[in-house]
Design brief:
Length: 149
């Protein structure tokens, strides 16, 4: 955790179109060790509008961490990842790809696009919650995140 994030909740942007996975992620993060504030974007276009503070997201907080699904409506998660990492004002935000895809091609492509981590979503409920808690433990407690500009 960076010095500038101490004392304030960690801002997380979850980019996920599946309402069930959104609900499970919220529940798992509620029980985490670190205070966090979760914003949700339901598709790739909304995610980029949120990050660029466009339209209804003009007052959005800059996330400290992005949890990104790959298979999204309107704009694919791979395209979203590429645009984030090409944008000098966004590229330092860590992006954790959280997807159902186990395809080696997706793993290689997302790391080529500079994803910070690739996690396959477990289908089992308890394992899913365990994975989200592990993300919480590692990215919000162990890792030193870049300060927001």
């Amino acid at each position: 955790m960076s010095d500038d994030t101490r004392g304030r909740p960690i801002e997380i942007l979850l980019v996920e179109d599946n309402p069930g996975d959104v609900r499970l992620t919220i529940e798992a993060l509620k029980e985490g060790k670190v205070r966090n504030r979760l914003s949700v974007a339901r598709d790739g276009v909304e995610a980029l509008a949120f990050l660029r503070r466009e339209g209804p997201h003009a007052e959005a907080s800059r996330p400290d961490l992005i949890l990104l699904d790959l298979n999204l409506p309107k704009k694919d998660g791979r395209e979203v990842l590429a645009e984030i990492k090409e944008d000098s004002s966004l590229r330092r935000i860590p992006v954790v790809v959280l997807t159902t895809s186990k395809a080696e091609e997706d793993i290689l492509r997302t790391y080529d696009l500079h994803a910070n981590c690739y996690i396959t979503k477990p289908v089992d409920l308890d394992q899913f919650i365990s994975v989200v808690r592990s993300i919480d433990d590692f990215w919000l407690s162990v890792v030193r995140l870049p300060s927001a500009e």
